Amino acid sequence: MNEPTLRTIIETLKEEQIDLAVTLPEEPTYPLTEALRADPFFQTVTVTGEGHGIALCGGASLGGRRSVFITGIAGLLVGGWALTQMGFYSVPLLIMASYRGDIGDRSGIPGASLFLFNQVGEPLLNALRVPYRVINQNSALKRQIKDAHFSCRSYGTPIVLLLTGEVLW
Amino acid sequence: MKRFDCLKLLASWIDEEVITVTSLSTTAREWSPLWKKGPNFYGLNLGLCLPFAQGLSLAFPRRKVIALDSDGSLLLDTSTLVTVADINPPNLLAIVFDNQRYGAMGPTATSRKADIEKLAQGAGIKVTATLHTVEEFASSVKPALDRSELSFFVAKVEPGREPIENEYMRFDGRPMRDAFVEKLRRYPDYCG
């Protein structure tokens, strides 16, 4: 994740008044969570499990605190139950996740493991009826974050932005 | 000690300014008829009750948030204790009702060697206690409601449930959520 991408995300989160970032450190999004941590506008919370991280972020969000959960697609798999429950209870929840295993991922994880994420990630979100968008161009980033944040609050649902392509690598 | 007796006491100590969250266990069934004034989110199970309450504590930093959790649910994701200790929200009070059972389905690990209070201490939570009597419950929980400090209590309760009208079973899912949010919206410090 390069500097202009980081700037775009941080500026957009600020414009949306999202000041709580919940995360579990994950390699491709690590520069983002570190940048958020360094910015006093944000309260950053590092959790020890994606499941309870999603629930924590959901509680804050339903309570009116504008928040974002930052993870990788593996974290969505780990947090599947929490995601199910947040959807069931119509909890507005913005999630930004690295799309490990997407075509072009050269992150160094052995190919078969990466391909697993590609095979099950989007089907899982579909099965859980969680709306998502795949963002692979920086030019789309700002608009997509704003749209996802608006719609998750409007519909009362988790929405996932899967980051890939030039946004991530 | 009966869970219902503890909950009756708790209901007499708090007002509508307090937010509560329960797990799906008997706690939800018994808390439902006792607590109608303030916002309560019922029935977050399989490890989600405590972290959800923690999130609410971050949304309402000047308001007391109480997690009414249970042993079976918390044991599913004890790593949440580490996150709770790490954030250390001073307005969060957690009470884990430990009946050492998965409902009517057999014993949890707390009936053998597992000690939830020690897990919480090991995670780094400073104020903890295991409570065995109603008197102990009163002497620990009531003062904690007035303190601005993260508190974590394990209430050892008998298995079984009070034979009461089960309103909770008719008030689940989206209607419960909407009623909860409606009460939150009345708070002046609601920022949504």
Structure in words:
With 169 residues, chain A is of the alpha/beta class. Chain A has one domain: Rossmann fold, CATH 3.40.50.970. Chain A has helices at 3-15, 30-38, 50-62, 73-78, 80-88, 111-127, 138-155; strands at residues 20-23, 43-46, 67-72, 93-98, 132-135, 158-163. With 192 residues, chain B is of the alpha/beta class. Chain B has a single domain (3-185), classed as Thiamin diphosphate (ThDP)-binding fold, Pyr/PP domains (Rossmann fold, 3-Layer(aba) Sandwich). In chain B, 42% of the residues lie in helices and 16% in strands. In chain B, strands 2-1-3-4-6-5 form a six-stranded parallel β-sheet, sandwiched between helices. Chain B is globular. The termini of chain B are far apart. At the A-B interface, strand 2, helix 3 and helix 5 of A face helix 3, helix 5 and helix 8 of B.
Short description:
The complex is a heterodimer of chains A (169) and B (192). Chain A is an alpha/beta fold.
SSE arrangement:
The complex is a heterodimer of chains A (169) and B (192).
Chain A: H1 3-15, E1 20-23, H2 30-38, E2 43-46, H3 50-62, E3 67-72, H4 73-78, H5 80-88, E4 93-98, H6 111-127, E5 132-135, H7 138-155, E6 158-163
Parallel strand pairs in A: 1-2, 1-3, 3-4, 4-6, 5-6
Helix pairs in contact in A: 1-7, 3-5
Chain B: H1 3-13, E1 19-22, H2 26-34, E2 40-41, H3 49-59, E3 65-70, H4 71-76, H5 79-87, E4 92-98, H6 116-123, E5 127-131, H7 134-146, E6 151-156, H8 173-185
Parallel strand pairs in B: 1-2, 1-3, 3-4, 4-6, 5-6
Helix pairs in contact in B: 1-2, 1-7, 5-6
